[in-house]
From TrEMBL:
Domain of life of the native organism: Eukaryota
Protein name per Swiss-Prot or TrEMBL: Ketoreductase domain-containing protein
Residue span(s) of domain Ketoreductase: 55-237
Family, per entry: Belongs to the short-chain dehydrogenases/reductases (SDR) family. SDR65C subfamily.
Coiled-coil residue spans: none
Organism: Trapa natans (Water chestnut)
Lineage summary: Eukaryota, Viridiplantae, Streptophyta, Embryophyta, Tracheophyta
UniProt KW Repeat keyword: no
Gene Ontology terms, MF aspect: oxidoreductase activity
Entry keywords, A to Z: NADP, Oxidoreductase
């Protein structure tokens, strides 16, 4: 297919969109994982319940933000990865960086909002992984922030297509591969916007709400095929997608005030949960949508000021 890139790839210490301090934390957490795996085989303890060795995975949108963190963490657990993005330049840069670290990641240029390109992507994945796929991470998603009555038909269609239709179709296309693997796991990147109202995000929230219900429906419908279906639902995570909206100090303060843990999330806060949901260790968990939100979605009333008793 046009723009299909196959390179042996690997781990990158620098994530472009995260700060130096986070990169150090990032590297340290990986280092300690490596030590625990190589020294006393924590990965093999429990009959491989904590390992993805030999498993295959497709992660959409793996060149930046949350998707990139998922690629890099899944690889650390032994999975063979294929990812995609629209930018060939960015994909090539990632693949080169990963390759220099010795990880097995391949990639395709693919706009998942395009039906034909989705078909080509899954053909590539199928031939690469011999007709089997263990893990599908439906991560691509975007946003248009504006009041509902200002949405044009084109904007509405673009959001619905990128955030939901593409995901629905990718599930259909990969179903035979997931089933053939004998142990399939789908993880969707949803959002807290699928549960609660967020300003100027009615349409994006509707796409995530649809993903949440698809998560539950596929869990039941495809259980007989040994395919699990779960979703992660983040609140604000430090990625390029939300850089602009979080550049306002005032807005950021509002975000902190609504977040019990009083910080933004890191992409790794999400990727660790995604990995868990793909591991054999979580094999009895299906149909769940788990928030990664510092407590935002359960924060009913948390006044900063203590009211003196009279
Ligand atoms: N960041 C947050 O605060 C947050 C909160 C809740 C939920 N989420 C969800 O988390 C997911 C990832 O968000 P993110 O913040 O990591 O986004 P991001 O930083 O914008 O990264 C998006 C990734 O997806 C790729 N991509 C975007 N559109 C694509 C398309 N049509 N076809 C193929 N690849 C595409 C991008 O590469 P190209 O641009 O080169 O294609 C990039 O690799 C989304 O579903 C988002 O809704 C994010």
């Amino acid at each position: 297919m046009n723009g299909n890139i196959k390179l042996l790839s690997c781990w990158s210490k620098s994530n472009g969109d995260i700060g130096e301090e986070q990169q150090v934390r990032f590297s340290n957490s990986i280092r300690s994982h490596r030590i625990s795996c190589s020294s006393s085989s924590r990965c093999s303890r429990g009959g491989g319940r904590w390992s993805l060795e030999g498993k295959t995975a497709l992660i959409t949108g793996g060149t930046r933000g949350i998707g990139r963190a998922i690629v890099e963490e899944l690889v650390e657990f032994g999975a063979k990865i294929h990812t995609c993005s629209r930018s060939a330049t960015e994909l090539n840069t990632c693949l080169r960086e990963w390759g220099s670290k010795g990880y097995t990641v391949t990639g395709s240029v693919c706009d998942v909002s395009d039906r034909d390109q989705r078909g080509n992507l899954i053909e590539t994945v199928s031939s690469m992984f011999n007709g089997e796929l263990n893990i599908l991470v439906n991560n691509v998603g975007t946003n248009i922030r504006k009041p509902t009555i200002e949405f044009s038909h084109e904007e509405f269609s673009h959001l619905m297509c990128t955030n939901f239709e593409s995901i629905f179709h990718l599930c259909q296309l990969t179903h035979p591969l997931l089933k053939a693997s004998g142990m399939g796991s789908i993880v969707f990147t949803s959002s807290v916007s699928g549960f609660v109202s967020l300003k100027s995000m009615a349409v994006q929230g509707a796409t995530k709400g649809a993903i949440n219900q698809l998560t539950r429906s596929l869990a039941c419908e495809w259980a007989k095929d040994n395919i699990r279906s779960n979703a992660v639902a983040p609140w604000y995570i430090k990625t390029p997608l939300v850089e602009q909206v979080l550049s306002s100090g005032e807005y950021l303060e509002e975000v902190y005030s609504r977040t019990p843990l009083r910080r933004l999330g890191d992409p790794m806060d999400v990727s660790s949960l995604v990995v868990f949901l793909c591991l054999p260790a979580s094999s009895y968990i299906t149909g769940q949508i788990i928030c990664v939100d510092g407590g935002m979605s359960v924060n009913g009333f948390d006044p900063k000021v203590d009211i003196p008793r009279s």
